[in-house]
Amino acid sequence: MSRGRAAPQDEDAVAREPPRTRARILAVSLALFNARGLGQVTTAEIAAASGIREGNLQYHYPRKSNLVEAVFAAFEAEAVAVAGRLPPDPAAAEALLAYQRSWFDLIWRYRCVYRDGIAMVEIAPTLRPRIHALRAETQALARGVFEAAVTAGRLRIGSDALGRLIDNAWIVSSHWMNHRPQGGAALTEADLDWGFAQVRALFAPYLAPDRPD
């Protein structure tokens, strides 16, 4: 009788294993891509770091392009969530700071997407329209957040200027890694702080004075 009851549990374990394996592969892939670059990491290295054979990796992700697409899909979902997260109090002094910092934290977690954009499209050409669509969607969501800050009196800027400010913030957020003072040295969290400061400087002229306590 106990053997008969155990069989469904074993089947359930088998059914649950693929999602866990895929999640582990994606986490390992992202870590390696972030550390060494999308074009420098092989599927054999990903399989070894994931503790599986390369054939098992190919069962879940037949080609490297499938892995890159899956990493981008994870980034895509997080980017939409972060860009659309309206601060509870848009007038608060720390509201925009926290909102913008959350975007840079996302950049840090998926820095390979920003640093290796050309390689990403070369490996997975089908991502090109999704990249453009994601930019449009996240910019629209960000505009909603910043318009709320304008309405709350935290930002003092006209509609047209706000559009240009959002465009410029996107440009700096996307390309600061190629212009940081350290140049070709390995990317560090200190570099992230430097990049964040560049974006904050764009908004500084439009920030209203902090409210008195």
Using brief descriptors, characterize the structure shown.
213 residues, disordered N terminus, elongated, Tetracycline Repressor, domain 2, 72% helix, mainly alpha, Arc Repressor Mutant, subunit A
Description:
The structure is a single chain. This protein starts with a helix and ends in a 10-residue tail after the last helix. It is mainly alpha-helical and about 210 residues long. It has helices spanning about 1-35, 45-50, 55-60, 65-85, 95-110, 110-115, 115-125, 125-150, 160-175, 190-205. The protein folds into two domains: about 1-60, Arc Repressor Mutant, subunit A; about 65-213, Tetracycline Repressor, domain 2 (Orthogonal Bundle). The protein is elongated. The chain is built from ten helices and no strands. Mean pLDDT is about 90; it is low at about 1-15. The relative contact order is 0.10.
Which helices and strands appear, and what pairs or packs with what?
Layout: H1 2-36, H2 43-50, H3 54-60, H4 64-83, H5 95-109, H6 111-115, H7 117-123, H8 127-151, H9 159-175, H10 189-203
Helix pairs in contact: 1-2, 2-3, 4-5, 4-8, 5-10, 8-9, 9-10
